[in-house]
Design goal:
9 helices; binds SN-glycerol-3-phosphate; about 230 residues; TIM Barrel; globular; alpha/beta; binds magnesium ion; eight-stranded parallel beta barrel
Length: about 230
Amino acid sequence: MLQLPKVIGHRGAAAYAPENTLDSFREARRRGAAWVEIDVKLTADSVPIVMHDSSLKRTTGIDRLAAEIRAADLPKDVPTFEQAIACFQELGLGCNVEIKPCEGRETETARVTVETLRRCWPAQLPPPLLSSFAEGSLAAARQAAPEFDRALLLGEIRDDWQARTEAVGAKGVNTNGQKLTAPRAVEIRKAGFTLSVYTINDGDVARALVAMGVDCVITDAPDVILKALA
Ligand code: G3P
Ligand code: MG
């Protein structure tokens, strides 16, 4: 089983600070999170950055694709993955690194992500957990750096969940908590996989999911969920 905290701050603490920024990671820490989840993708010059969308528009106002901008031209509030890792070291934060490749860059994004982790991840922090909806990225991560644990992200749990999870050598399933049913939660836990849910910001919902067997709740409001689960 993976060693995960009960609560992980989604994109830092996205309810309180601009998502996937150093401020958001600091806010997550201040609000009690021991880990954060971030999204990693590549710039045009293959620098890993912390950014959810393919385009910079929603979060920065700049109408450019991440895959088309060079790292040197990024707005200051978009951290590189290395800057994020340095921030985690300063704060003592663990991390669920979601590999979020732009289309066609599944393998490259995974390789650069694990190369960066090998080079920069601080030994004193808990080992990071890699996750992705992109099975090609998880397969590439496994091949390049099998030492990093993986979880498969599934928008919903279908009958093929176990075969797909095992195909990428993942120890965990991270799924949409709003769609998870109790029988599926039991099935996943019984099969020996760690079960995490996103993105749960309501304390009662979090409690119900944990009662179903969920190990870890990924949330925009870590203080709210920590309090609800205390
Ligand atoms: O990793 C959990 C969650 O972040 C997956 O969905 O779209 O918020 O990256 P998304
Ligand atoms: Mg994510």
